[in-house]
Amino acid sequence: MTQAATARPGLSFVTTIRLGLFQGSLGFLAVVFAGLLNRIMLSELGFPGLLVGGALAFEQFVAPSRILFGQISDRHAIAGRHRTPYIWAGSACFCALAVLVVPLIFRLAEAMDSADGQAVLLGVVLLCGLFAFYGLAVSMATTPYLALVIDRTQEQERPRAVSIIWCMLTIGIVIGAIAISLSLRGLDGITDRATLETVLGPFMLRSAGLVFLLTLVATWGIEPARAGESLSSAADRDDAITLSRAWRLIRSSAQVAIFFTFLILFTLALFLQDPILESYGADVFGMPIAATASLNALWGSGTLVGLILAGLWIVPRLGKFAAARLGCRLILISLLLLLLAGFTARVAVLQGLMILFGLASGIGTNSALCLMLDLTLPEAAGTFIGVWGLAQALSRAIAKLLGGGLLDLGRALFPLQGPFPPFALVLGIEALVALAALLMLSRVNLHRFREDTSRSLTQVLAMELG
Fold this sequence. Notes:
Elements: H1 3-7, H2 13-44, H3 49-61, H4 65-75, H5 84-113, H6 117-151, H7 158-183, H8 193-219, H9 243-251, H10 254-271, H11 277-283, H12 289-318, H13 320-344, H14 347-374, H15 381-413, H16 420-441, H17 446-465
Helix pairs in contact: 2-3, 2-7, 2-8, 2-11, 2-12, 3-6, 3-15, 4-6, 4-15, 5-6, 5-8, 6-15, 7-12, 7-14, 9-17, 10-15, 10-16, 11-12, 12-13, 12-14, 13-14, 13-16, 15-16
C-alpha cells in the first residue's frame, strides 16, 4: 500500500456535495453551450449537420491532452497544490470561450448568406478552433478534478461519491434546461437573427459567470496544501513517469484496451443523438426552442433518479458489472423506443421516453464510473484518469461528428420522405452501438486488470528510475 493510500482523507457528505457543484456547473454549461447552440445552428441558422457536428467534435478531438494534464497535475504543484490551480485556470478559459461562441456563429451565418467563400472558410476555421481550445480548457479542469476525487476518497467510499457528484452533474443539466426554458421563452417563433443574438449573448455571459463562481465555491479549500512535497514518494506514484512511459503503461495490458473500447462504445451509445436531439423534437414533433430545451430537463431528471437508484441500491445489490450490463440493456431498449416514437410524432410520448432514457443512462453511468475508478491504480491516478477521459472524449467527438454526418446522409438518402427517416437512421445506428458496448463489457476482467497493470507499473517505474 502506498503512502498516499494510507493517508488519503475521506470526504463528508456535505463536502462531497460542495465538490459536486463543479460537476453541476459543467452540466449547466453543457446544456447551454452544446444543446442550445446545436438547436440554434441546425434549426434557426440552417447550418449543415456535418458542420455543426464537426465543429463540436473539435472539443473532443483534443482529448489526448487529458493524459498530459493528468501528468502535469501529478508532477507539478502550484502554491503547494496539484489539482485546484489547474481546475480554476481551465474553468476561467472555457467560460471565456463560451461567451465568444455566440457572436461567432452569427457572423458565420451572415457569411454563408452572402456566399463569401473566404469569410465562410475563416468562420469555419475560427469556430473549429474555438471549440478545440474550449476542449483543452475543459481537459485542464476536469482531469485534475477527477484525480482530486480519487485523492480524497477511499475505494469503498467511491460509489457514494460518484453517485453524489454525478447527481450534481445531472441537477446542473436540469437547471440549465429550465433556465433556458424560462429565460428564452420569448424567442419561441422568433427567426430574426439580430433578436436571437441580442438575447443569447447576455444569457451566455451570465451563464459563464455563474459557472466560474460555482467552480470557486466547489473547490476552495478542498485540497490541502503540500508545500515542498509531492503527492507521495516518487517511487510509489506516477509523478516520476514521463508521458512516453505512461503510454507504455497504457499499452501493456489488454484489459486497458478492452475497457478503453467499452468506454468509447458506451459513451457513443449515450451521445450519438446528442447533436440532433433538439432538432428531432423541432423537426419531427414540432416543438419550439423552449420546449426542446425541456427534453434535456426530462432526460436529466431520469438520469438523476437512475444515478441515485444505482448508487444506493442497484450497484450494492447486483454489483458493478451486473449493474453496468443492466444499464446497457436499458439504454438499448430506450433508443429503440425513441426511434419508434417518431412514427407517432406525439410530444408526450417523446417526453416520457426521454425520462426512460435518462433512467437507463443514470444506471449505466453510475456503474461504468464505479468500474472506471476501480480500474484506476492510486499510484497512477492522473495517468489512468487521463486515459479513461480520453476514451470518453474521443467517443463524444465521434458522436458529434457522426450524429451530424448521419443526419445529412439520411437527408440525402430520403429527400422526399419527410423529416423522420434521417433521425431514424441516427437512432438505429446508436442502438447497434449500445449492443456492441454490452458485448464488449463481457470481456472486462477486474482481477486480471489489476494484476497486469500493477506488474506493468512496477516495470515502468523501474525503467524510469533505473
